[in-house]
Amino acid sequence: MKTLLYPCCGTEDLYYFLYRFMDDVDRFIFADLNFRRYFYTDAVNKVSEIGKVIKTERKGRFYLSREKGYLEVEPEYFYITFVYKGKEKEILFRRGCAQFALLELEENSLDYFVHRGDSSEGGSRIYFLSNLNPDYKPISRLYDKLLYRLKPDGYIISDGSNIRFKNLIRFYKSIYYKSREEVLDLFPVEMELPDSRLISVDILNRRYNHTIVWKVKKYDQKGGGGNRTRV
Ligand SMILES: C[S@@+](CC[C@H](N)C(=O)[O-])C[C@H]1O[C@@H](n2cnc3c(N)ncnc32)[C@H](O)[C@@H]1O
């Protein structure tokens, strides 16, 4: 079973990934704070156009409060089960804080991780491609946590938004004004990141910058498979 996770996906860009990866992926997880009831209805209609919807289910109730200066969020899960080319597939819209959509995944369970079109001003300010260390442990060192959940032959898809690794930032800056063909001429580009190496394999449609598909080669994480990165 193949899984794609797109945190902070908004309500439009996710459909590009749904259509583009429909043949390959069995479970899509789209995570955002701002899904509304009419959005779910619209999504069911769109999925009905390409497959046969057999079930929808809502679990939990989204709740957000900002009491005593703390942000408290209860997530909501909306599932669409459908059949596409004879195969049963599932979409989960997870309304809540996106970091927890990642934390809910098992070790070595994720095939594609997508994050793009985001920013630090007006966007989520979440840095999955970084090992920033905020005080609140569950959302610290997100790249370590991502690696822990990515399969050994998994992929990271990014347009360079909300990253903090200097070599990656430099690379995305260097390709900003290049054409798709000029960027492809540079392939395979290799990037050394903590406990891993990224190798460029494809370019998808452009968002803020070229959207690069990186194959991830994970090095053995120290400490018996990365217990330190599970939570
Ligand atoms: C700049 S938009 C990008 C949307 C999408 N990636 C795109 O390219 O169109 C940032 C998105 O992050 C979502 N967001 C902000 N903070 C979030 C959080 N803590 N958890 C989940 N989503 C969040 C917003 O609702 C918004 O849809």
Structure commentary:
- By secondary structure, this protein is α/β, with parallel strands linked by helices.
- The chain has a single domain, classed as Rossmann fold (3-Layer(aba) Sandwich), CATH 3.40.50.
- It is 25% helix and 34% strand.
- The chain has seven helices and twelve strands.
- The chain has helices at residues 13-21, 37-50, 98-103, 142-149, 166-175, 180-185, 222-226, and strands at 3-7, 27-32, 52-59, 63-65, 72-74, 76-84, 87-95, 110-115, 150-158, 190-193, 196-204, 211-218.
- The chain has a ten-stranded mixed sheet with strand order 3-6-7-2-1-8-9-12-11-10. It has a two-stranded antiparallel sheet with strand order 4-5.
- The chain is globular and about 45 Å long.
- Residues 223-229 have low confidence and may be disordered.
- The structure holds S-adenosylmethionine.
- Residues 8-10, 12-13, 31-34, 97-98, 116-119, 123-124, 126, 207 line the site of S-adenosylmethionine (SAM).
- The site of S-adenosylmethionine has 19 residues, from strand 2.
